[in-house]
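Listing S7. Sequence submitted for prediction.
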Amino acid sequence: MTNLHDHTHDHDHDHGSELSEAALRVRALETILTQKGYIDPAALDAIIETYETKIGPRNGARVVAKAWTDPAYKARLMSDATSAIAELGYSGRQGEHMRAVENTSELHNIVVCTLCSCYPWPVLGLPPVWYKSTPYRSRAVMDPRGVLNDFGVELPATTKIRVWDSTAEMRYLVLPMRPEGTETLSEDALADLVTRDSMIGTGLPLKKGQAR
């Protein structure tokens, strides 16, 4: 089951595999600085990886952990995600219009941007490369269960899958199911179980005691 919201993308974006003018300029500048010995490509890649997978997603992980432990906050998150997220200090560009969608045993949500790469930066950091790729943008709509399998997520055949199309007007945060056996964990410990992919819908939270 898919549920795509067809909103107009009214900002510049990269269609297909061609780089935008800005991206080409950044690539050229990076090449020049590398040739002159000012930057180390490996170090730059490490910084980008950190923002993609650690610093940025930690914000979203704190939102999820609080929703798992505070029913009143969860209610606010589900009714007005933008305001609820801002309560924790996470707001700004690319996060002005947010909606939280909750995974349950009957329904699994997955987020995609079919036209470009709209992504909630304040809670998830930089979008991963695969999120911006044409194969993901197309297959997530046509074969979401197959995409989940590619990411190692196998759901029961009875679980419905809903696909949400992120746009400039609305970006989504998936509220994953709380792992079993975590009733005694603190909010900080719960946040450690929340992965970036689980908040996009292409992954699941870690289990108690499972290392990243």
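Caption to Listing S7: primary sequence and predicted structure tokens for the chain studied. Residues 31 and 37 are 10 Å apart (CA to CA). Residues 21-200 form a domain with the Nitrile Hydratase; Chain A fold (CATH 3.90.330.10).
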